[in-house]
Amino acid sequence: MEHQKTYTEEKPYQCDVCEKWFTQSSGLIRHQRTHTGEKPYQCDVCDKSFAQHFYLKVHHRIHTGEKPYHCDVYDKSFAQNCYLKVHHRTHTGEKPYQCDVCKNRLLKVLV
């Protein structure tokens, strides 16, 4: 039943701090950690902590060297899918971002 709310516009769970609404209670729980600073997921190698299990999993690849996302064109692998997507743009020529000052097109946002 929780999953079905994803397909409707129903968002019955509200954050009592910032009043943001969520479709699932688990989304609200994860969000509330941004307010509390709670980081219950701790790396067993370096003791760094994370608010979400997903980020711990990605972080752990630093220690293991795991790079599960592979380029089909070059013999190159990446720890995160987002890095593969940026790399893929070197093959397609896609430059989806534009500098507000000089209007130059960019592969990725530079902060």
UniProtKB/TrEMBL annotation:
Keyword terms of this UniProt record: Metal-binding, Repeat, Zinc, Zinc-finger
Superkingdom of this protein's organism: Eukaryota
Pfam families: zf-H2C2_2
Transmembrane segments: none
GO molecular function annotation: zinc ion binding
Gene Ontology BP, a term: regulation of DNA-templated transcription
Protein name from the UniProt record: Zinc finger protein 271-like
Organism per entry: Aphis craccivora
